[in-house]
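The methods section describes the discrete structure representation at length, but only in general terms. An entry of this sort, consisting of the sequence and the corresponding backbone structure tokens, reads as follows.
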Amino acid sequence: MTYDPQGVRRFFDASGEREWQRLEATLQGRSSHVVHRHILADFVQPGFRLLDAGSGPGRFAIDAVKMGARVTLADISNVQLELARKQLSESGLLDHVDGFHVADVLDLSAFEDASFDVVLAFGGVLSYTRDRYDAALRELVRVVRPGGAVLVSVMSVYGIMRLTGPLDAAKVLESVDEHLDWQSLLDGSDTVLTRAGSVEFHQPLVLFTSNGLRRAMTDAGLRVERVASANPLLTEYMKVPQMEASALASERLVQLEVAACEHPGLVDAGGHLIVAARRPLD
């Protein structure tokens, strides 16, 4: 099965407010947000025009505005765009928004070539395009100016597989080929496709290794500058009630996650891989 935009739209329409809460409800979610924001901050300057492609409810758009950017939001889900409008309005930041667009990341024809200083696709946008991720990347590159930055985050092959431990996922491993391409995982492939209809994956996805994501960015004509991951130390679904209850412990865990996020020995361990790259000057 190839990319299913209607399925992705339905999923995020149904997700509603949960998509906003995802990055604040747990220590892992808050840590992931901080790591993404840490990378983003090095590529945004006051006055930059930024496209948030696959913006969801606008969390990273808000971060970018606070860094001084003017933002344009695009998402396949109108429900998520309306939530983003609400969040930006309640934050008093709507004056820094140039527009809200219902758009598929594979079709950004609403925007002219080289329209933006930074193009952002955080939250696994490319992973949802499955076998069309190369075409999605070409669109992201098309709309960024020469010398501008493209930042993406995707679902990590080994970050996902690390969840089998905290979830004690014996049944998943027993039926693993129903959920993803098991042989390609064993063969060390840099991209692994999940199965359509899997009860373990809410949408058919492509999972990346850091090498696979780096190569995809390079093949799209970009020069990779940073490779990082979110939560390489504290994987999602791990129960940490004592750390959650301690503000100091939580703060220090997040500091450690930021410090470790680009360590070569840990980068493939996180749930999301993050790559920042530039379109070369013409």
Summary: The chain has a mean pLDDT of 94. DSSP finds 13 helices and nine strands in the chain. Residues 27-41 form the longest helix (15 residues).
